[in-house]
Amino acid sequence: MISAIDATGKQIAKGSFKMDPILTVQPNSTKPWTFVFPAELVDANDADLSRWTARVTQ
Prior knowledge:
By secondary structure, the chain is an all-beta fold. The chain is 0% helix and 22% strand. The protein has no helices and 3 strands. A hairpin with a 5-residue loop joins β1 and β2. The radius of gyration is 13 Å and the shape is globular. The chain starts with a strand and ends with a strand.
């Protein structure tokens, strides 16, 4: 599960994404990915996107 949180701490999107193979990032490296939330999973009304955070949960 991935959640997007706005600057005020409000969750503005949450969804699951299937990744094959399992995503592994080695220490001291990067692996860019793009996650697109379907519109029905986004609640960005009055969202403060001046700063935001993505969180991975189980």
